[in-house]
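We modelled the chain as a single entity of 247 amino acids. Its sequence is:
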Amino acid sequence: MSTMTPEPPVEQRIARGKEALARGQYLSALADLEAAAAQRPAFADVHNLMGLCLSMVGRADEALAAFTRATEVNPDYVEAHVNRAITLNDLGRTDEAAVSFQRAAEADEAKGGGGRFGSAAAARLANLHRELGDAYEQAGAGDEAVQQYRQAVQLRPQFLDIRTRLGRALIELGRTDEAVAELEAVLDHNPGFVQARAHLGLARFRAGDLAGAGDEWRRCQAQQPDNAQVSAYLGMLERRGGGAAPS
């Protein structure tokens, strides 16, 4: 008489999935997390982690669905709202992304995380500093743009789109070490943020780290094979002798 191997406890699947995600084994992590979600569909954290895995393997639409499910299970899940906003931004759905970023700020305020001004006010002020930074950047005043972006980031450090703008502005000023630090911080929070990774590659390229630039851009291409900017960067790298772009 044969015996069936019992299913591992859901907590074990989640722990195993988190460990695989930390090692960069995204498909392995996804398998465990999907199994955990099937057992306990009301675990918002599991859906958020699934979204991160799906982002990293280039399945943005499915990642968006996972992040959305996490916010449905827990409407006050700040990180899931932020990840959802970033994914919407990557998909070109910027108006929806702005709504999701605002929802993240509201959820954070409900938890008392707004600091000096309160989250709603801090979010508004951060976006005003971002708009002013954009205006300075368009006028060719890079130092002033960086100053405004930094003020925005101090108010709302989880607004990763603004931190990415700060990184880009620092690159243009030749302050590549600072740019790398900012963009790595963004990617520590969301490894699937392709725009931030593309800028990180550019910062490494400008600093003379051609191998590092190539690594970042190839990871971007794996996530978004049709990204024209990344293809152009890889072509630039090939011309500099930093390694052939993948076919």
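As a brief sanity check on the tokenised model: Residues 1-5 have pLDDT under 50 and may be disordered. The chain is about 75% helix and 0% strand.
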